[in-house]
Design brief:
Number of strands: 0
Radius of gyration: 18 Å
Number of helices: 4
Largest sheet: none
């Protein structure tokens, strides 16, 4: 039986394409990112990610997560609803006795 070619891309390839689109969006809307970050650190990080993606490098999972957080910060600076980055708290153990 002849196998059909996979019409759907893998999750990893889709994540990399999404990262390129997010990076392009952030670069065109840097003025909104500057509203929420006065230090300029996030703008430098966004430029670094954009340069990596332009060279064709693939981002790791943590880098993709950070890029999504930059996107959310950009959306917050534009005045749209955004989701804050989630930070896990140290679990507390139950004390008996």
């Amino acid at each position: 039986m002849r196998e059909r070619p996979d019409r759907f891309s893998s999750n990893a390839a889709q994540a990399q394409r999404t990262a390129r689109h997010l990076s392009d969006f952030i670069q065109t809307n840097l003025h909104h990112l500057r509203k929420v970050d006065r230090t300029g650190k996030l703008e430098k990080d966004a430029a670094s990610f954009h340069a990596r993606l332009q060279r064709g490098e693939e981002l790791t999972g943590n880098q993709l997560s950070y890029l999504e957080a930059l996107y959310e910060k950009t959306m917050a600076g534009a005045g749209f609803p955004s989701v804050d980055t989630h930070h896990d708290k140290r679990p507390r153990s139950l004390k008996f006795g």
